[in-house]
Amino acid sequence: MPVLSTYAYRDSVISRLDPRVKVAWLVVMLMVSITTDRPALLAVYLLVIGMAAAAGRVPFSHLWPTIRAMLSVAAVIVFIQLFLHPGPHPMAQFLGIRLYAEGLPVGVEVALRIYCVVLASLLTFIWMDPTDITLMLLKLRVNYRYAMLVSLSLRTFPLLERELGKIYDSQQARGMELRGTLRKLIRLMPVIMPFVLRALRRANDIAVAMELRGFGYRKERTWQRAIALKQLDIVLLAILAAVTLTYLFLRLTHPAWFR
Amino acid sequence: MASVILGVVMTIINAGILERVDTALTGGTWFPLAGGTHSTISVLSGLFFRLPGGWITGETNALFAVITGSTPVAWAFLINNAIYPVIVVLVSRVLSMKKWYHYAVLLAPAILLGYAPMIPATHSVFQLPWSLAFKFQLLTDGAAFLIALVLAYLIAQAIARSRVAD
What we know:
The complex is a heterodimer of chains A (259) and B (166). Chain A is mainly alpha-helical and 259 residues long. Chain A is built from nine helices and two strands; from the N terminus they run H-H-H-E-E-H-H-H-H-H-H. Chain B is mainly alpha-helical and 166 residues long. In chain B, 83% of the residues lie in helices and 0% in strands. Chain B has helices spanning 2-26, 32-68, 77-94, 100-114, 118-126, 130-162. Chain B is globular and about 45 Å long. Chains A and B meet through helix 3, helix 4, helix 6, helix 7 and helix 8 of A and helix 1, helix 2, helix 5 and helix 6 of B.
């Protein structure tokens, strides 16, 4: 499974939205997912996320590796909850541990929450061009030297992944067996050491190259593109603010609806 | 620049190998292996690039954890990784960091305080009882301490000898 699901432009309403709207959507989704306990509501949130993915024309195949990887997390969590909630309805016994049916709703709730949190985060960054993140930080008055680092890190990610692959290959060429996760784990030191040293050397090279191109010479910097809130962005931000306030009001006045 | 690269390095090692093993073993409720490399790289960044470097490395890693959806508690890394470098930098100011036990003295408070925000995060996301969330965190802390004590000391010596961070 690739570590990073990269951004790819898709012509959709969501792709054209301002990055601040996308981040606001993520914040709202995280807030409601974490503070809701009712599985039915969490299933509705998941449905909303699915609809947002469809509206943003993100193919299911793009999300599937993460959905599959999270299955093991969900399975372990459900198991823990079955064990943690003893009651009058024992379900099964596993390695001397008795599992109870009372833990099942809690397990399902946590599993749904995990999917909401992870998919909402993943989707937001599939929608966002790395440069947009930099531009958004600039709008938030972050110094451009720091704002640049976000898109820079996203761009160096595949390079460093390739570098790690080369280190694995060279260590294997020297006779070290590194196939399989367990072997990689046991022989972490001979891999991590050259990886860190090579990464630092690469950082020096990039820093020198940027300095030679005059990066940081002026306090102000111009950009090819700028972001600005359009009418649709403002409407959506207002809707998100209204949803947040309504949710908080209902959460405080009718807490039982969310439990 | 080097701090960002270290953040990316940390993410690649953790998300590529260690978090997978952790997740398969614990469902992401605690991170014995990923905690070790996280502490190692955070300490290196704090030692060689001081507080801004430590923050950049940590927040780069946190950002990638959120982007990749590597764990449902990734958003808590934003808080963890803001606290951790502060302790590393404060403790390393009074120690020469030439002996292995200096790393033990540095890692103990950094891990205990820096990883503390994970307790409410695992409690709220995984619905774990407070006592269990606390115990899982202590297990993460113990494993991270042991792994980082060896890795951070050896790699810091190698970096100092190679002078790549000068």
